[in-house]
Automatic annotation (TrEMBL):
Cross-referenced SUPFAM superfamilies: P-loop containing nucleoside triphosphate hydrolases (SSF52540)
Coiled-coil zones: none
One matching Pfam family: AAA_lid_2
Similarity comment text for this entry: Belongs to the MoxR family.
Organism per entry: Jannaschia seosinensis
Protein encoded by which gene: ravA
Keywords for this protein: ATP-binding, Hydrolase, Nucleotide-binding
SMART domains with a match to the protein in the record: AAA
EC number: 3.6.3.-
One Gene Ontology MF term: ATP hydrolysis activity
InterPro entries to which the protein is assigned, alphabetical: AAA+_ATPase, ATPase_AAA-3, CbbQ/NirQ/NorQ/GpvN, ChlI/MoxR_AAA_lid, P-loop_NTPase
Primary enzyme class: hydrolase
The name this protein goes by in its record: ATPase RavA
Gene3D superfamilies given in the database record: Magnesium chelatase subunit I, C-Terminal domain, P-loop containing nucleotide triphosphate hydrolases
Length: 333
């Protein structure tokens, strides 16, 4: 590894320690959620936060925008939300001399960190307005393509239990999320700390640690970080083993999985393992990173068959079984 890259990785690691400490001033507990969110941003991707109301998802996104020094925007998705409410629209204005011209008014999507709150409450037509933005970092309005700010990240939230009045996200849009993050209930001790910290006279303010330019540079460091051949092979083995029509797929996948992850899952694992290593102060990812990230990367990119759902099979258990099997084979080799 070149000395300049080594120095950049070490300097970035120190700054990430500061960022995690800054986030912790407002987010108590939820260490894994914070870590995965930061990893997604370091990888230049988007994250889908799955959790019940009141678990701090909105607070987390607001805190991340502050700590990372990004311009933030929030969209509350509802059934009557229209694409123009996200992307913006052209309005006809009359000048003082009586001439008329169209002027484009930017929508809330023109932000560096966009919070899409309860994204599954909007209609498919409105959800699709995000597809081009999430993949290509640009939007096309009235025939004109407009670039979004850099960096551009979407952190979307979704309530996993309320199904009435919701529209499931299509597979193409789910695949645009680098990672799906499950936000669980805190334990008793953590909940006690939350209650005491948030019901007093004043709450702590999170300091700014990054800015847009520094984050973009950090994303460049992540992409230059070396990855060993064993880790690359493990990523490919894991992703391919989760496809039911692959010749190397284990029996549990062939029996229970309707469709598996595509190449974008392998790309996500490659980036996230590097970011995970950085967050833990290491110079390169190892096989344990792949196994740890299997659920967050794969669970929204594959689906159980109808028979498997009827039998009560859990997709997460299938992923864990495949990850354990692939890791075991890699160690034996």
């Amino acid at each position: 590894m070149a000395d300049d890259l080594l120095n950049e990785i070490e300097a970035l690691g120190t700054r990430l320690v500061e960022a995690r400490r800054a986030v912790a001033t407002r987010i108590i507990g939820q260490d894994e959620v914070v870590e995965l969110s930061l990893a997604a941003m370091l990888s230049g991707g988007h994250a889908l936060l799955m959790g019940l109301p009141g678990l701090g998802k909105t607070r987390l996104v607001e805190t991340l925008a502050t700590v990372m020094g990004l311009s933030g925007s929030r969209i509350q998705f509802t059934p009557d939300l229209m694409p123009a409410d996200i992307l913006g629209s052209e309005v006809l204005e009359t000048a003082a001399d009586g001439t008329r011209a169209f002027r484009y008014i930017e929508g809330p999507i023109f932000a560096q960190l966009l919070m899409a709150d309860e994204i599954n409450r909007a209609s498919p037509r409105t959800q699709s307005a995000l597809l081009q933005a999430m993949q290509e970092r640009e939007v096309t309005i009235a025939g004109q393509t407009r670039k979004l700010p850099a960096p551009f990240h979407v952190l979307a939230t979704q309530n996993p239990i309320e199904q009435e009045g919701t529209y499931p996200l299509p597979e193409a849009q789910l695949d645009r999320f680098l990672v799906k993050i499950d936000v669980a209930y805190p334990d008793r001790a953590t909940e006690r700390d939350i209650v005491l910290a948030t019901t007093g006279g004043a709450e702590a303010d999170a300091p700014v640690v990054f800015d847009a330019a520094t984050l973009i540079a950090a994303q460049g460091v992540v992409r230059r970080m070396p990855v060993g051949d064993s880790v690359v092979d493990l990523i490919l083995d894991l992703v391919r083993a989760c496809r039911p029509d692959d010749e190397d797929a284990p029996q549990t996948v062939r029996r229970h999985v309707a469709w598996g992850p595509g190449p974008r899952a392998a790309q996500a694992l490659m980036l996230l393992t590097r970011a995970q290593a950085l967050l833990e102060g290491r110079l390169a990812p190892d096989p344990s990173d792949v196994a740890r990230l299997a659920r967050p990367v794969l669970s929204h990119r594959m689906a159980l068959s109808f028979a498997a759902r009827a039998e009560g099979v859990e997709l997460e258990n299938v992923i864990d079984e495949v990850a354990a099997r692939v890791t075991r084979v890699e160690r034996a080799a």
